[in-house]
Amino acid sequence: MANFVETEIENRDFGKIARVTVNNQRKLNTLNSTVISELDATFDQLGKQPDIAAVILTGAGEKAFVGGADIGEMATLNPETARTFITNMHHVCQKVRFLQVPVIARVNGYSLGAGMELAASCDMIVACKKAVFGMPEVRIGVPSVIDAALLPSIIGVNRARDLVLTGRTWTAQEAYEAGLVQRLCENDKLDSEVETVLEEILISGREAIKIQKQLCNDWENSPLATGIQLGIDAFSNAFTTNEPQTMMQQFLNRER
Hints:
Layout: E1 5-12, E2 15-22, H1 33-47, E3 52-59, E4 64-66, H2 71-74, H3 79-98, E5 103-107, E6 110-112, H4 114-121, E7 124-128, E8 132-134, H5 151-155, H6 157-166, E9 169-171, H7 172-178, E10 183-185, H8 190-202, H9 206-220, H10 224-238, H11 243-255
Parallel strand pairs: 2-3, 3-5, 4-6, 5-7, 6-8, 7-10
Antiparallel strand pairs: 1-2, 8-9
C-alpha cells in the first residue's frame, strides 16, 4: 500500500533537517483519514528524535501544499464519524504546533481549509507568489473549525471572519500583507527562501530554540503577567546547559 506521507532526513553540521511531504497529488494533496493518520504517526516519530533541528512541511508537486480535507470522504460522514475525523485532524495540527523544534510550511500552491489550518499551525510560512489560501468550508456546508481558531490572533478578528464567512480565497500577496505568510518569494525561489530560513535557525543555539518555541506556545495561552514570568523561568532554565556560556564566549572572541 502506498504511503501518502514521505519523510526525508538530511544531516547538517548543526543537526538534522526533516522534510515531510504530503504526496496525494492526484487529489491536490488533500487529507483523508489515511493521510491524517500517516501525518500523525510521522510527527509522533519526529517528536522522539532529539537530533532533529527543524522540519519542513510541504506538498508534493507544483500545484498544492494541501488542498483541504477530502470532500469525497467527508460526504459520507455522520455526526459521530465527523467528530472522529475532525478530532484526528486537530491532533495533527497540535503535534505540529507543539513539536519541540521549528516547523516551516513550504507553501507551493493551494493551501485551503485543513491545508490552511495545517500551515497556520507551523511556526512560519514560506510561500511562493502562486500560492492560494482560503477557508472555503462554508461553501460545502460545514464550518471552518479546529485550528482555524488560530487565525484571529494571526490575521485579526475581522479578517478571519471575512475568510471563514465568505469562503473566498487570498492570493499569496494578500496572505503576506495580512501576516499569515512570513516570507514571500518568486515561484522559482521557494527552495532558496526556505534554505535561508533554515540557515537562520541553525546558527542559533539548539536548546535555546527549543526553549523559545515552548515559550512562544506558552505566550499564546497565557495572560501577559504569566507570560513574563514564564520568560524569566525560561531564561533561567537556559543556563542549566553550557550552551549560553559556549555561544557567548564565541561571540566575545569574535568581537576581540
